[in-house]
Amino acid sequence: MTKRVEVAAGVIFRRDGRFLLGQRAPDTFYAGYWEFPGGKVEPGESPADALIRELDEELGIRVHAVRPWITREHLYEHAHVRLHFFEVADWEGELHDHVHSALSWERVEAPEVGPMLPANGPILKALRLPRWMGITHAVEIGVARQLELLDAALAGGLRLVQVREPGMAGPELRAFAVELVKRARACGASVVVNGNAELAAETGADGVHLSAAQLGVLGARPALEWVGASCHTRAELERAAGLGLDYAVLGAVQPTATHPGQAALGWERFAELVRGLPLPVLALGGLWRADMARAREAGAHGIAAIRGSWDQS
Questions:
Q1: CA–CA separation, 115 and 206 (whole Å)
Q2: Are 147 and 136 within 8 A, CB to CB?
Q3: What is the pLDDT of residues 44-99, one digit of tens each?
Q4: Which residues, other chains included, contact 105 with Cβ-Cβ below 8 Å and sequence gap of 6+?
Q5: In 3D, which of 267, 247, 265, 258 has the Cα closest to residue 310?
Q6: Above pLDDT 90, what percent of the chain?
Q7: Beta strand 38-40 pairing with 132-135
Q8: Could you give the angle at the alpha carbon of 218 between the alpha carbons of 268 and 160, nearest 5°?
Q9: pLDDT for residue 120
Q10: Which of 264, 299, 301, 310 lies closest to 285, judged by CA?
């Protein structure tokens, strides 16, 4: 039986948004492949503490804060590796590499170096997932108003939109989705359609967002670029991961007007539910821009919101 090795890996961002990769040295497994900096977790050491130590030893930087992100497992011929990925939120110092052949700052949208270490490859797509998902409610506020608010949000940097209009009739929904996709595409934003993979494909959207009920009966991942699902339990989150979905949305974290009377998870329970998952999870429910730091400290990739995305007051 292959021994499982615990490894801590860090996603280190520069102020311009680029992230750091290192090329493995000639005398190591997968020499020449690129990876995220980090190393083995020593006995009695937490993954977070291991990463802080490793980045000091490998790169000569002092890390003051890390955020839990995702955890992935990979079976190599020499080891079964469990990689605990963290976002390095606060660090200082000048990089002085001691273990890699080379270092490179890469763009999330299109890394130029390669090949990537196999265990790290899926992380690149997760990094492309925007930190904020705007969820539409055009039935409530009117299509014209929703599109007006969409344009303002896109101009302000919104790059992921979910079309969620349960009260909208088929032809109207299709026309709305087509118009929204056109406007989002012009700004480089992605669109997922709630609950309808066929409509997503017809309207040129980038993917589909499944309900928890749809997730429960899903036999295989739809063949779209982005596939996510709404989840409320650990079992649903694990099913989303097992089916190879790209992300999950978990809530409600706080009380929300969309589901009045629904018990809120709170941040502590949210953190428990997402710990150790191999896919990014967006926090949902009564959240605003000011909640982003708290969400990421709890292990969220970012936030999904209805009112928090469009309220301009």
A1: 26
A2: no
A3: 999 999 999 999 999 999 999 999 999 999 888 777 889 999 999 899 999 998 99
A4: 14, 18, 19, 20
A5: 258
A6: 86
A7: unpaired
A8: 60
A9: 80
A10: 264
9-45 per-residue burial string, b: 16 or more CB within 10 A, e: under 16: bbbbbeeeeebbbbbbeeeeeeeebbbbbbbebeeee
pLDDT on residue 43: 93
**Residues found in the chain:** 313
Structural domains of the chain, with CATH: 4-128 (3.90.79.10), 132-310 (3.20.20.70)
Query: Alpha carbon 57 to chain centroid distance?
Result: 28
* Confidence category of residue 259, pLDDT binned at 50, 70, 90: low
Q: Which string of b and e fits 130-164 if b means at least 16 CB within 10 Å?
A: bbbbbbbbbbeeebeebbebbeebbeeebbbbbbb
Q: What is the pLDDT of residues 99-121, one digit of tens each?
A: 999 999 999 998 999 999 888 87
- Tokens of residue 309, six digits: 């995305």
